[in-house]
Each structure stands twice: as C-alpha cells, then as structure tokens.
Amino acid sequence: MRDAAPQTIYLKDYTPFGYLIDSVELTFKLHPTKTRVLSKIAFRPNPEATDNRFFLHGEDLTLISAKIDGQDVTVRHVDGGLEADGPARAFIWEAEVEISPSTNTALEGLYMSNGMYCTQCEAEGFRKITYYPDRPDVMATFDVRIEGEEPILLSNGNPGAKGEGFAEWSDPWKKPAYLFALVAGDLINHPGSFTTQSGKDVELNIWVRPWDEHKCAFGMQALKDSMKWDEDVYGREYDLDIFNIVAVDDFNMGAMENKGLNIFNSSAVLASPETSTDANFKRIEAIIAHEYFHNWTGNRITCRDWFQLCLKEGLTVYRDQQFTADMRSGDVARIENVLALRARQFPEDQGPLSHPVRPEEFQEINNFYTATVYEKGAEVIGMLKTLVGDDAYANALDLYFERHDGDAATIEDWLKVFEDATGRDLTQFKLWYSQSGTPKVSVSEDWDAESGTFSLTFTQSTAPTPGQDVKDPKVIPIAIGLLSPEGEEIQATEIFEMTEATQTYQAKGLSVRPVPSILRGFSAPVILEQDIDNTRRAFLFAHDTDSFNRWEAGRDLARDALLDMIENDAAPSALYLDSLRKVFADDTLDPAYRAYLQAQPGESDLARTLAAKGVTPDPDKIHAASKAFKQAKADALKDLLRPIYEDNQIDGPFVPDAEGSGKRALANSVLSLITKLDGGTLAQSQFEAADNMTQKLAALSQLVTAGKGTDAITAFYDQWKEDRLVIDKWFSLQVALAGPDDAAKVATALTQHPDFDMKNPNRFRATLGALAGNHAGFHHKSGAGYKVLTDWLIKLDDLNPQTTARMCSAFQTWKNYDPDRQALIKAQLERILAKEGLSRDTSEMITRILG
Ligand code: PHE
Ligand code: ZN
C-alpha cells in the first residue's frame, strides 16, 4: 500500500530516539497465517534525546494487546506505526501482535519459503514482526522463545533451553533490530567446527533441506577460511558459541548477516561440482566471507542511520575482496572487481540514479543497496589504504574496533579514526562520500630531453549529476610506473596524490623518454582519458609490468577496434589481432589471466562508451560488430586454439580452486573461439563428456550461440529438472543468448513454462533479468523487450516491491539511445508509474529514472 504522498527522509534531519532499550524478550507462536508475537521490552529515557515521543514502527500488524508496566494502554495508530504516552522513567512495554507469514510475498519480515519460516529484517523489516523502534541506532540484547511444530527452531546468539515444540535463544551482544533472525523448518545440518585464536570452540552449521545436504561442504570450508582470515589479517575473533547459516530458496538479495544466524539465498551457499560453475563457487566463497566479516564490520560496529550504509557495506566488500585476492589470484580478482564496477556502478553513476556513496536523502532505503554504496564504497576504502599505507591502515582499523565496538557509527567517526591514527586531514578526501559521479582524469605528457625530465599533467573533472551541479576536485591516488622503450621497468609504481583540478607529476634525471603506465591496479574509480595511439597501447599490452594495466591496454585496443568497426565499418584491427596473438601464445601466464586477455568488452559496455563520446549507440550494429570481431579473433588465433584447449584439460576430480578454475576458464574461452571455426563440433563433445557444470554450461552456451542447441537444451532440462538452481541457469541462458529478434519471444515463452514462478526472485531474475541483460534483444527497435519487462514488473510489484524496484534499473541508461527508443521506453516507464497502488519502492525508482 502506497502512502498518499511519498515522504523523503534526509540525513540532516537525524535525531536520536527518545528511549534506550535495555533488553528485548520475544515469544513466537508460529502459525502460517496467525503467528503470534509477544514482546517485552525494557525502555528508559535516552539522556541524549531532545524529543521523548514514544513512537514504535509497525507495518501489517494486528495489535492484540499493549501494556506499559503491566497496565493496558491506549495507543494511537499513526502513519507507519503507533504512539503511546511513554513515561519519563524506565518502563516495560509489552505487546502481542498477529502476523501472517504465509501470505507475505514481499519476503521482508517473517515469511515462508517452501514450507519453512524465515525472516529478513534489513533494512526495515522488523517492523513487520512487532512494534519496535526499527532503526539501527537502537541496540539491545534479545532473548527469544520460539514455539512451533518444526523440528528445527533457530534464532540469534547462543542456544538456551529446548524441548518438545519450543526452543530458546539468547544473544548477549547488543544489536539493532535489522540483525534479528528466526528460522523454523524441517532442516538438516551440515556440521563443522572452528577453534578461534584464543582457543574457543565454535560450533558451525549449514542448515538445508535434506535433498541439498551434498551441496554444503564447499560453503563450510569457505566459512572456516573466512574465520581464520579475519583473525590473521584483522585480528578479529568470533564472539559466540555457535554460527549458523541457513539456505532459503526465496530471497530478495544474496545473503544476510544476522547475528550468529546468517540467512542465505540458496544460490549464494549451495554448491556441488555437478550443479555449480566455477563462477558460482567463487561467488559463494566471497559471499560467505562477506556475511561472516559483517560480524565485526556491521554487527559489532553498526550504522547510526541508513545513510551510513556504506560504513558497513563498503568496508565489508573491501574486506571480502581482499580475502578473495588472498585465496585466489590477486591479479585476476582485481580485473574482476573492476569489470563489475564498470558494468554496474559506472552506469549508475553516469545516469539518472547517480547518488553519493553516502546518500543524503531517500524515500525507500531498499533502493540504496546499490553498486555505488557497495562497490564504489569499497573502492573509496581501497584509495584510503593506498593513501595512508598498509601499516597506517592496520593501525586505523585497530583504533576503529577499539573506539567504536558496540556503537552505531557514522562516516565522520570512520574518517576521524584515520585522522587520529595518521595525523592526516581528510576533509577533501571526504568528498568521495558526498560527491556523486565518476571523475574523468585526462593526462598529457611532456619530455624535456635536456634535463631528462618527464612530466604528466593531469586534469580532473566530474560532470554534474542529479542534485549536484558543481563538483570540487577530489583527492585521487594515481599509481604510476615508468617503462623503458624496451619494456623494462625503470621506475616502480609510485603513488601520485592528485588534489587540484590540474596538477603535474614529474620524474627527473632520466636518460631516455619513458613510457608511462598510469592508474596501475586501477588505483582510483575514475575514467582515465589518455590521448595515446594504438602502437603505445600495443606496447603496454606486450610489456606492462603491472598486470592490471597490461590487461587494460589490451582491452582498450580491443574496444577501439570494435568502435571503429561500429562507427566506420572498419575491418577488425590487424594491430590488435597481431598483438593478441603474441600475448595469448605466452603459456607462462596464469591461465585465468590469459582467458581475460582475450575477452572483449560486452555490448552494453560498448553502448555506454559510444554514448559517453556523444555517439548514439545502435544495438544491432554493436551486436553485429561484436560477432564479427570474435570471428576475426578466432581466425587470427586459429592454430593456437586447439593446443591451448588440450593443454588446459584436467585429469582427475573437479576442484573449484584458483588453478582448476583458471584452466577451465581458459579452455572454455578458447572453446568459444573454436566454435566460430568448427560450428559446434567440439562444443557438442564437451557437452556430452562433461562431468561438471562449468564445462557443461559453457558447452551448452556455445551450442546455443551456434544455433545448434535445441537437443542439448532439452537434454539439459531432462537431466536437471529437479534442481532449482540448475534450472535457473537453464532459464537464464536461453534468454541471454537469444538473438535480437527472438529475445522477447523466448522470455515470454519461458514465463509460460510450468517451472516459471514469479514469486521466486531467482527464477524471476533468471528470466526477466536475463532479458534486460541481452543488450540487442532488450533494445530491439520494436520495443518488444521493453514491453515484456514492463508487463512483468507491473505484475511483480503487487507481490514483491523490493525486487521489482531493483530491476527497474534496466532502464537507467535510456537517455543514451535514439529518440525512437527513448519514446518507447518513456511510454513503458509512464505505464509503470500510472499503475494503481504502485509501491513506494518502484515509484521512487521510476520517478528518478524519468528525471
Ligand atoms: N546486508 C546484506 C549484505 O550485504 C544485504 C541485504 C540487504 C540483504 C537487504 C537483504 C536485505 O550482506
Ligand atoms: Zn553486506
């Protein structure tokens, strides 16, 4: 139900809640449609508050009774909750409410997924469970009693009494309500244990449905690795006797860090070699680490208000990226993080949804779990570490945990810790949190042979973004290395701290003009504009001693070659193909890295690049050029392909580690080129022989792309129809790989398949999200792609506003396209907005996208 007029909430309006809570006791009497929740909460006036209004949030609750100090009280139902006359002294609030988990399709609060009860409270879901000050700065200890028939009854903290039909849990650590969790169901556990650095034994469990038991081992190992890593690298030890993870099928996001009881989308924890790809394994490892790391960065130190979301998310993403880099190849991890940033965060920051890493206003906080808050938030921390150095970063983090343990903190607190630990003034650095948009950094070179001085003059600028017309120069750490004309490193990486709009870096006393390698390791989330020719790029592609920049040089060459094909009908660049041949032939390179060396920019990426140059992208042309380019690569590398494919086959069991997954990635990337030459013969035999999903799915993709997938699609379905997560892949692959004229039709047909279930976010995303990701299909000039997505978003909004709103971002780049397409999209956006009873979530998103 939408409020009459959506309200905007501002950071500047923050005031503390009028009361503190000493303890919370909750009793749940579970029932699918009539769950009773009894709460007993000890309040006392907050000495720091000026406003002592006793307001409790509550949504979709039926109030049965309310008492203060044992006496019935009259409450006033107001917008978003209730009010009562709160005494100006300590008192006990008791309430009983009734809720209906089985009809809760929004998957927020207490809901049911395949017959099991589970909760999702972040950001503001606890108010759908009981009346409560549902804000992160109100922290309390929770004692929970669950009464229900389900064999397994779980909540946060340590287990207490347990018996026939009930279980009690008690969480000794103060926490905000968004970290509350409850699970009840017919579950079995995959057990494990961990001994912490101080010698405490922790019981570990991954709870799943019986049929998923064989998919837990990898997640359990990832959990243990995460626990050990956080001790070794951050000195952070786990603080309860038990750590539970539960897999649920219906979940809006990836996973949730509830204290001691993490709840995961089953796609983010369950894995087996037969059913999961290497990419799945890697993602699962990262998400398990992410949620575990939240125990300190998020739970022990939480956010004062939701504007501070990046305090926990940016830092925790940064930590999980460090973990992945340590567990696997750091070079490849950096490339993957940057690819993800450019694919998800750059378009957001360069379009109508652009917002600061710490937003200053919102209508619906669920709409701000964005790539900007998460991924750019992580980049900002990486820059901070680069600027202060590794040791100072470690000291600052120690101080952060020491000073703020138990707090609900702010970005100001976070930066103050760095200022105190390093003596640095971070006033200008703070602009990274408040100023939105992706800075552009352009660079020009100068060489003075007489004095041997080489200069790089940098200029930074950021285009206006919604609500921010003027941008100030930021602090930008630019990592620079210098190479000799022979490709030897003559100056190792140095950090140039740019603080002005225009600033010059100099290297002196050089005997030859060096070749610079700039923004090594992608040292800042900016767009680097270098006016260099392709010979220089080819040189860097061959010689750069920074692995990231070496890959980047090849990528830039490939991109320019593609743009030339799209804009000028040029032939595929011989210089690029020649350079690629030389680099790709080098079998001393790490296979995973080598696979990335030949990957080409995707079609959406090319469309955005064109738009940024002021050229209107033509999706059909981009699609055709991308195919032709790939064919040209296959032709140019022809004789290398088969040997690389053979060399990277693995005998023996499937191991989803860096080495095995790297070889499979390289072999599969080569397979995609071979298919361009043999029309699918090798792909067919790989499809038939594969005993793991990584090879199976890659082969299936190639067959479908080559137009030979019909039988394989059927066979795949027959083999895997009982496995939801595999069938998600089956839905997604068909839509993602459909040709431009077919994508909307394929998606529509799949929505009529008996296995399509719009209530399941994974299945919905696998089908409609894949349509939005099929660039040429989604942007088909008929408008069919836009219409199909819109039809489904309108339907889903009634059931699940959060997932609907997130998927609206498919339209965020609409102004990049031609007037006809813009008109088609605008009509669909307006159709959504005109829908009766549109959710606040979706209404905010569409309004912002329309601009
Ligand atoms: N806090 C979760 C995470 O990043 C994400 C999440 C947000 C999950 C909101 C559910 C709802 O780890
Ligand atoms: Zn998180």
Automatic annotation (TrEMBL):
CDD domains: M1_APN (cd09600). It comes from Cognatishimia coralii. GO terms for molecular function: alanyl aminopeptidase activity. It catalyses: Release of an N-terminal amino acid, Xaa-|-Yaa- from a peptide, amide or arylamide. Xaa is preferably Ala, but may be most amino acids including Pro (slow action). When a terminal hydrophobic residue is followed by a prolyl residue, the two may be released as an intact Xaa-Pro dipeptide. This is Aminopeptidase N. Belongs to the peptidase M1 family. Its EC number is 3.4.11.2. It holds the Pfam family DUF3458_C. Residues 96-179 form the Aminopeptidase N-like N-terminal domain. It is an enzyme of class 3 (hydrolase). Residues 437-531 form the Peptidase M1 alanyl aminopeptidase Ig-like fold domain. Residues 219-429 form the Peptidase M1 membrane alanine aminopeptidase domain.
